[in-house]
Design goal:
This protein is of the alpha+beta class. The chain has 14 helices and seven strands. The strands form three sheets. It has a three-stranded antiparallel beta sheet with strand order 1-2-3. The chain has a two-stranded antiparallel ribbon with strand order 4-5. It has a two-stranded antiparallel sheet with strand order 6-7. Strand 1 and strand 2 form a beta hairpin. Bound molecules: adenosine-5'-diphosphate and magnesium ion (MG). Belongs to the protein kinase superfamily.
């Protein structure tokens, strides 16, 4: 039939793809297939690259690095995107140590605006961290842009919990580690970790090794150590608590977070945290 004809001949030669669909993800369909030689059943994950590219080329927002073109050879995929020449927030964070509440609120607001846009289109980033937030230019007031979502993740099988976690796992939501969910709320958790880091200069969850770090995140427990947090507003702490809410159902959404007094400046944050 038509569908079988669409499979690559090399695949058809080794496996018979059955009509049974095991599951459907955001950009992938998983079918059952039978290894012709051994008659053993396997799962076949089909990633709809064309669909992903179609979606991502339509993503246009001031705080998101857009995809412009996509090419591929047998060995590589070539992705043309907006150029963000100001470098990573990660780098700036290392240089600055920490940020005043006003500067941090400005960055978090831009990040949230990008996320509202993505989430409205049912796109979950899943890897929000300071390495994936880039400044558009080298100017001091350059806008912040979200990069590295969707396509690159899927192409590199970042879907896999362990691969996601083995990079910089400190920003991963507990439900991802507990394999209990990967909805939009995972991005808000990461915003919470970033906000914590921007204001204090250290991460809320930590461990001697990766296993200990995972334990720390999965416990969901963190503290505002007086030594570093005594000068930071209650408003900022309440926003972090709303973002680092363990239950993803109860966690604040991107839209709600934009309305938080710490962002709207209804409660004046102290001018400088440093
Ligand atoms: P990976 O999926 O391997 O993390 P990224 O898309 O995050 O790849 O790119 C790796 C790094 O390359 C980024 O952290 C950033 O420093 C740089 N980079 C990525 N995209 C851009 C861009 N559009 N403009 C400027 N630098 C970029
Ligand atoms: Mg990256």
């Amino acid at each position: 039939d038509d569908e079988a004809n669409a499979y690559p001949p090399e695949l058809n030669a080794d496996y018979e793809v059955t009509k049974k669909t095991l599951g459907v993800g955001s950009f992938a369909v998983v079918k059952e297939c039978i290894h012709r030689e051994t008659k053993k059943a396997y799962a076949l994950k089909i990633i709809m690259k064309k669909v992903i590219a179609d979606i991502l080329t339509k993503v246009h927002h001031p705080h998101i690095v857009s995809l412009h073109a996509l090419y591929e050879t047998a060995d590589a995929v070539y992705i043309v995107t907006d150029l963000a020449s100001g470098g990573e927030l990660f780098k700036q964070l290392l240089d600055r140590g920490n940020y005043s509440e006003r500067d941090a609120a400005n960055l978090i607001q831009q990040l949230l605006e990008g996320l509202v846009y993505l989430h409205d289109q049912d796109i979950v980033h899943r890897d929000i961290k300071p390495e994936n937030l880039l400044f558009a230019t080298k100017e001091p007031d350059a806008k912040l842009m979200i990069t590295d979502f969707g396509l690159s993740k899927i192409l590199k099988h970042h879907d896999d919990i362990l691969t996601t976690a083995c990079g910089t796992p400190g920003y991963v939501a507990p439900e991802v580690l507990l394999q209990k969910g990967h909805g939009k709320a995972v991005d808000l958790w990461s915003v919470g970790v970033i906000m914590f880091v921007l204001l204090s200069g250290y991460t809320p969850f930590y461990g001697e090794d990766q296993a200990a770090l995972f334990e720390s995140i999965m416990s969901g427990k963190y503290e505002f150590d007086e030594e570093y947090w005594c000068d930071i507003s209650d408003s900022a702490k309440s926003m972090i608590d709303a973002l680092l809410t363990f239950d993803p159902e109860k966690r604040i959404t991107a839209k709600e977070a934009l309305q938080h007094p710490w962002i709207t400046n209804d409660e004046k944050p102290s001018a400088d945290a440093t």
